[in-house]
Amino acid sequence: MKKLTEFLSLKKKSISIQVGIAISFTVVALFAMGAFGITMYHLFTNRMEAMMSENAVQLLDQTATNLESYLKNMRRISDTMYYSVIKDKDLASEDMVQEMNLLYDANKENLVSIACYTSNGNLVEAVPVAGEKEDVDVTEQEWFREAVGKMENFHFSTPHVQNLFDDANYRYHWVISLSRAVELTKSGDSELGVLLVDMNYSSIEQLLEKANTGIDEEYVYLMDGNGEIIYHPKQKLIYAGLYEENNEEIAAWDDGSHKEDFGSENRLVTVKTVSYTGWKIVSVIPNSVFNMGMYETRLFFVMLLIISMLLIIFVNQMVSSSVASPLEKLNESVKEWEAGNMNPDIYIGGFTEVEHLGRTLKSTVEQIRKLMDDVLLEQEEKRKSELDALQSQINPHFLYNTLESITWMIEGERYEDAVFMISQLASLFRISLSKGRTIIRVEDEIKHATNYMNIQKIRYKNRFHVDFQIDEEILNCCTVKLIVQPLLENAIYYGVEGMDDEGEIWVRGYRDGDDVCIEVRDNGLGMSEEILDSLLKENSRVPRKGSGVGVINVHKRIQIRFGKKYGLEIESEPDEGTMVRIRLPYIEYSPEILEYLDGKRTNRPEEGTADEKK
Questions:
Q1: What is the third-level CATH fold of 15-318?
Q2: CA triplet 296, 297, 299: central angle to 5 degrees?
Q3: Of 365, 264, 325, which Cα lies nearest the Cα of 18?
Q4: Are 269 and 259 in contact (CB under 8 A)?
Q5: pLDDT per residue as tens digits for the range 139-183
Q6: CA 284, CA 214: separation in Å to the nearest integer?
Q7: Intervals of CATH 3.30.565.10 along the chain
Q8: Which of 128, 255, 284, 492 is a good FRET partner for 338, with 20 to 30 A between their CA atoms?
Q9: What is the pTM of this model?
Q10: In this structure, are residues 552 and 532 in contact, taking their beta carbons and an 8 Å threshold?
Q11: Cβ–Cβ contacts within 10 Å for residue 606, how many?
Q12: What are the TM regions of this chain, as residue ranges (predicted)?
């Protein structure tokens, strides 16, 4: 501990508290700003990615809506063809051919042909052509097999070249076939057949091309439920083996956005299933597209961080100066007082807590000086006891160490702990002064002890635990002030100081008949019977630490006020701990009692006097 104090003293000589605070503030602030910037960047990146995913979903929804509308129109044509033209009409009727032509003419922009076959594969009628190729067996084609015998079911094929009819212009039409089972009537007899509507593939191609008008690397394609590609902007490259697509694996994915590693890059893949068909529209956004959009964002964040860091450094200089300067001035005043000047110029200023501490300290110094003058007029025994009590009121070394602790807390940016220490120290001073009174309430005495222990726990880094259990019925009783704190100080220095995290101190207050008892118990080293017997004797040779206020002084001060039957009772066992019991008369606090007990009459109460007041 001594080496650590010397090291910190040398450090303070080379680095002022202002510089230390500024450096600490700056390092922590820069770290926090860097962490904040990285966090915000990741949040922004995730948001951008989410927006791209949302845009992809919206694009697919719109494309799916357009495609579903187109397919729905094809279904409507098929329904019209079946229910209005074929069903309940004789195949030999001339009206059937005429109505098929009318229906085709009304939708020829999206259609290549309409044909009707029997379940054996024989052509019934077709528009706009009727010449079927000789080598065609429709019963072997997928669209026929999927539709025959399955009433009310629609089947959409993948893109293929229409190869059923001869074309006078030798043109090849890419189509998607919509096939369904139908009921045919011929000469009053019914039989099953297949209705075929060949949709122009270019119409679907145009719908999907509208969705691929953005960046080349970002594209949308269409496939069936088995993963076979229906449309792809790079379809020719895929067929030529120059480009690969992960369509077979993606076919098993659910609708929504997914991340995948394909080839040598990361991609955001969004899937949308098209109604009626089981087809899937897939949006692919490579990570390189996202990175291109994030370049300016990265640059913006870097510039913002640099400007923020420079501003933080400037602000930290101002803050560190305003925080450290008042504490340094107040610390110099305490050092002057510690050096022996009983009339120091106490600094008052700075933050509210520091200013309050300065005012309280100045008032305390003045009160101490006045009490030291008054104590010369008291009898020798009382003068000796009261002088020790005043020494325990505000011990400059305790105050100096406490202020040093506050300074370290501020250097370590433990501001809440520093404010807590200052407020506890200020409260300690207020109760210590008590407007010059010697008699105070038990409640105030316990509060004073609590403030003292709160400060000591922080100074000792919570190496011991303390527990207060005070009955409410004794809180308004009279007590000599500053009698619990010296016992707690002894419990720390003689009992639990060397016990790491195992030290326990208990403070219990209760009424015992006509008496008030306050016990201070610890689980420390205890003491031998020889030392125990000499504690409450005059001129005992027990070594002292801490503020130097011995239990004999507390014992005598209680007896001076309340008589010989009151004072301290001590019990101790080596390695078991020590218990010190304060015994006081049960006297409720009031202005009259205060005047009587606090020296407004010349005769001090001796043994039995307190009983008379009760």
A1: Beta-Lactamase (3.30.450)
A2: 65
A3: 325
A4: yes
A5: 888 888 888 867 667 888 888 888 888 766 667 778 888 888 888
A6: 12
A7: 348-613
A8: 492
A9: 0.44
A10: no
A11: 13
A12: 20-44, 299-319
